[in-house]
Amino acid sequence: MPHVSVDLDVCEDHAQCVFAAPTVFRMNDDDRLEYDAEYDEDLRFDVQAAADSCPVQAIKLLD
Ligand code: SF4
């Protein structure tokens, strides 16, 4: 399974990634980002779109 990493020290909780890939990224009850580090291969396009949409480039795709 492919992996994704988010630098939570850089993340500003804008949630664009949540809109792009809602099955991988979500906001918790404190409005902070949570995500699944492992995601299904079928979601690679959505996770790439999430990374592209992040205004602070906090999301890195790992294989
Ligand atoms: S789009 Fe970027 S800054 Fe916004 S919640 Fe996602 S990782 Fe954080």
TrEMBL record:
SUPFAM superfamilies: 4Fe-4S ferredoxins. Its cofactor is [3Fe-4S] cluster. The keyword Iron-sulfur applies. It comes from the Bacteria. InterPro entries: 3Fe4S_ferredoxin (IPR001080), Fe-S_cluster_ET (IPR051269). The keyword Iron applies. Keywords: 3Fe-4S, Electron transport, Iron, Iron-sulfur, Metal-binding, Transport. Gene3D superfamilies: 3.30.70.20. GO terms for molecular function: 3 iron, 4 sulfur cluster binding; electron transfer activity; iron ion binding. Ferredoxins are iron-sulfur proteins that transfer electrons in a wide variety of metabolic reactions. This is Ferredoxin. The lineage of its organism: Bacteria, Bacillati, Actinomycetota, Actinomycetes, Frankiales.
